[in-house]
Amino acid sequence: MIRPPAKLGLLGGGQLGRYFVMAAHELGYDVIVLDPDPDSVAGMIADEHLIASYEDEDALMHLAGSCQVVTTEFENVPSSSLAKLEAHLPVRPGARIVEICQDRLLEKSFFSMQGLPHGPFAVMRSEEDILAADPGLFPGILKISRLGYDGKGQAVVRDREAALDAFRYFGGALCILERMLHLDCEVSMILARDQTGNCVTYPLVENRHREGILDFSVVPSAVSAELEDEIRRMALGIAERLNYVGLLAIEFFIVAGKICLNELAPRPHNSGHFSLDACITSQFEQQVRAICGLPLGNAELLSDAAMFNLLGDLWVKGGEVVEPDWSKLLSVEGLKLHLYGKKKARSGRKMGHFTLLGKERRELCEAGRRFRNDLL
Ligand SMILES: Nc1ncnc2c1ncn2[C@@H]1O[C@H](COP(=O)(O)OP(=O)(O)O)[C@@H](O)[C@H]1O
Ligand SMILES: [Mg+2]
Predict the structure, then answer these.
(1) What superfamily would CATH give domain 185-373?
(2) Closest CA to 93 of 69, 74, 77, 71
């Protein structure tokens, strides 16, 4: 067990990292954040912020020499850096797992090898592959295999011609082509697992996306208890097969009533933000507990909840950046506003969120939409 006041190392310094730092502080730990961005919102509240590249030898060795354990809030940290750290201290989750999660091809191949359900896809290495692609994959989505997020590095492709255009636009990077699925809904399951195999799962979350970015999430989801159980068993099986230690989020599509895996995130997840206000143990505290070998916390839902993202677009008015007026939101009973302290608002950038707590999921979704529209 890694006991406070030990130092924990964190790779990545966005809002997920900021909440990790807060959770670690609540339990008496110190955190060193490595993030090249001097304005990192986790770095600015950490005990130490290493402003250096994720590959910087000195920074990595400083983490290895000062911390008891290292974790990540960002799956695009070079896995070679995690492997270097692994030679000196526990890295949770480990380099190999992060390597799988940061590469769509490795991830989908892992699903296939494990006999887990996923949608039809094929790897596209060249224009020839696109010309020869199975016609059943159109209309589809072409995704770069590495470094995409929030819908970036993805293009909806009606036909082969459009796929060729998109492939060229992505500079010929290795891609996967997925068939566009008709989704009943999207859900995610968040779980924490420690090094002895203890596991805690959160209730299934239902997610709505807009232009590839999470728009809002609601718990409990509308899927049946049987389907949720099946998803939970699958999620636990995946964590076990990976011998996962840390916090894991798994995105699923429900297609014609059946489960279809979308992707894994080896870190806290935007759709788990409800846990900050609707559970005794947030996903971030659970991450701290799992990587330190503390007993995992209670993850039951204390109340129905709906979480709405606040993107930078709300800040941009007539070409100027203006902080929205929060007074109306702040006066709503049962609403909790979270702002991440990012210095620059940009279109599509996650700047904050709010969570509505209450009795009934449908009412919460309608009210949340109204409150957010009022900010426009
Ligand atoms: N094969 C697909 N069929 C239908 N919708 C999809 C498909 N792949 C992705 N999407 C939509 O795009 C969103 C983002 O895609 P995802 O692969 O999860 O990438 P990201 O890494 O950006 O989250 C998904 O949550 C879903 O709404
Ligand atoms: Mg996703």
Answers:
(1) ATP-grasp fold, B domain (3.30.470.20)
(2) 71
